[in-house]
Design a protein that fits this description.
This protein is α/β, with parallel strands linked by helices. The chain has 8 helices and 8 strands. It has a single domain, classed as Alpha-Beta Complex (Spore Coat Polysaccharide Biosynthesis Protein SpsA, Chain A), CATH 3.90.550. The protein is 41% helix and 15% strand. Helix 2 packs across helix 8 and helix 3 crosses helix 5.
């Protein structure tokens, strides 16, 4: 018998419009989401924020984390822990997700997909990629470059353990960290076509800023060097995995 994968939605209680959007989509698509209260980075210190390596963050990125970025990090981290604790395959959504008509079909087939691919982004990025396989009618691709965003993804305990085991210090945003396949060993894969839209109708609550950030020349040079370092590591890992497969 086909068992539908549970869907967990990260949501701040005040974000009622976003919750209503997910609830409306879920009713139309015939599934019941589980809403998880997000960690509010603006609400003060949270124990998980101790994982931030502030010195390294400032040296490599030139600015501290925004409160929203920290809240997103902690919210995803806690669901990774739940995935491992309950030994449960799950789909994790952020509350601005825009779902496509084939989303319920993926929920039915996702457990079979996860046997081969324990982590998959469910939206379709327009970044270049290489097709790896077709499982239950879903086409699995490996991205040539980091597709960013953690709006929606399939997660099995195997991948959650790997994410957790290498998340002792936070320097990058969580979606960037999830793309560091060469660090934690979780391949950067996604569906093409996806079962979610890549873009959202909601404005970001993380990226908005009151004033334009100004970085000195040294910080800019360090940030660019770090960006190129990450890019080279990603490409080398892609090439290695492509050769192995």
């Amino acid at each position: 018998m086909t068992v539908q994968i549970p869907v967990f939605v990260i949501n701040l209680p005040e974000s009622t419009g976003r919750r209503a959007s997910i609830e409306k989509q879920a009713r139309g698509l015939g599934f019941n989401p589980h809403f998880v209260e997000a960690v509010d980075g603006r609400a003060g210190h949270h124990p998980l924020f101790d994982r931030v390596n502030q010195e390294k963050r400032m040296r490599l990125k030139g600015r501290p984390f925004k409160p929203g970025e920290l809240g997103v990090w902690a919210s995803h981290y806690q669901l990774w822990e739940q995935c491992v604790r309950e030994n449960q395959i799950m789909v994790i959504l952020e509350d601005d997700a825009q779902l496509k008509p084939n989303f319920p079909e993926f929920l039915k087939k996702g457990a079979i997909v996860a046997e081969q691919f324990p982590y998959l982004r469910l939206y379709e990025s327009d970044f270049a990629s290489k097709k790896l396989a077709t499982v239950e009618g879903f086409h699995i691709h490996r991205y040539w470059r980091s597709p960013l965003r953690a709006t929606g993804y399939l997660l099995a305990p195997e991948a959650a353990k790997a994410f957790l085991s290498n998340a002792d210090e936070w320097v990058l945003p969580v979606d960037d960290y999830m793309d560091l396949s060469w660090l934690h060993g979780v391949d950067c894969l996604g569906l093409k076509p996806g079962c979610m839209l890549e873009h959202t109708e909601f404005e970001s609550t993380i990226q908005t800023r009151s004033a334009k950030e100004r970085l000195g020349l040294i910080h800019k040079m360090r940030r660019e060097a770090f960006r190129h370092y990450l890019r080279s590591k990603y490409i080398m890992d892609f090439a290695r995995r492509a050769f192995d497969s």
